[in-house]
Amino acid sequence: MHSPENPYQATGGTSPPPYRGGGLEYGRMVSFVFENPRWFVNLLLMGVCQLIPIIGPMVVLGYQFDTVEALHRDPRRRYPDFDFGRFVDYLVRGLWPFLVVLIASVILVPLMMGCSAAVIIGIGLAVAGANTQSIGPMMLTLLPLIILTAIVVGIGIQLLLLPLQLRAGLAQDFAAAFDFSFFKSFLATMWKEALVGMLFLAVVGVAAAIVGFAMCFIGIYLTMGVVMLAQANYYFQLYELYLERGGQPIPLKPHVPAPLPRPQV
């Protein structure tokens, strides 16, 4: 278990294998969750937080980036345990990526709606100019295209949000997220790996949801914790691979140890 004075201190016992570099280890994103002997307790505490409206997901988000930083500082360590004593620390840390995604979405969501509207208008014009007998077959062809367009635009938005959220979560700063030099460099270097990893996690998320619903619906809070920790490992691997390829490091806040208790007089 990590030290309360230094949450980034390496854990004792047998260390898991470090990230090897050279590419993403997709299976490791999931197996990593169970490398910590207290994995069930961590998932349980994360599930409890998810029950708290608004604040709970931000706390889990903060713990997620705390895990990314801990792995970055020492890749040979197991990820840190969820510590309710650091509830406020997690909340503050999760606030910045939450706000960044919220603000950026205000710009990107209308863009998505505009693209979707353009597709729908184009389909409407095509249908209006077609013969009545060909409308049915045309709709069967165009409806999948509408769905595909919505999926592609949604994935594109997530891809654009990724470097903003990663920088905000690691730098623990709102303004630092909008460093467009880092934004362009990260996407240009990592877009392929980021996209494939995103699709992999989407499949993991669907599987986790099915398992969670099968566990009388309550299990969804545990299985979604698996997805969040797998995503933390995904962020870690992406960032380390980005640095390995000569990317710009994100400035981390120095760790300030907790003050020692005063001796009793």
Give an overview in words.
The chain is mostly helical. The protein has one domain. It has helices spanning 26-31, 39-50, 55-73, 87-128, 135-171, 180-214, 220-244. It starts with 25 loop residues before the first helix and ends in a 21-residue tail after the last helix.
State the total count of DSSP E strands: 0
Strand content: under 5%
Distance between the termini: 31 Å
Q: Which regions contain 5 or more consecutive residues with pLDDT less than 50? A: 257-261
Which overall shape is indicated by the principal axes computed on the Cα atoms? globular
Order of helices and strands: HHHHHHH
The biggest beta sheet reads:
none
Structural class: mainly alpha
- What count of helical segments does DSSP give? 7
| Domain tally | 1
Give me the Rg, rounded. Answer: 22 Å
Approximately how much helix is present in the residues? 55-70%
Mean pLDDT over all positions: 83
Keywords:
globular, mainly alpha, 265 residues
Task: Please provide a brief summary of the model.
The protein has 265 residues and is mostly helical. It has helices at 26-31, 39-50, 55-73, 87-128, 135-171, 180-214, 220-244.
What's the helix and strand layout?
Blueprint: H1 26-31, H2 39-50, H3 55-73, H4 87-128, H5 135-171, H6 180-214, H7 220-244
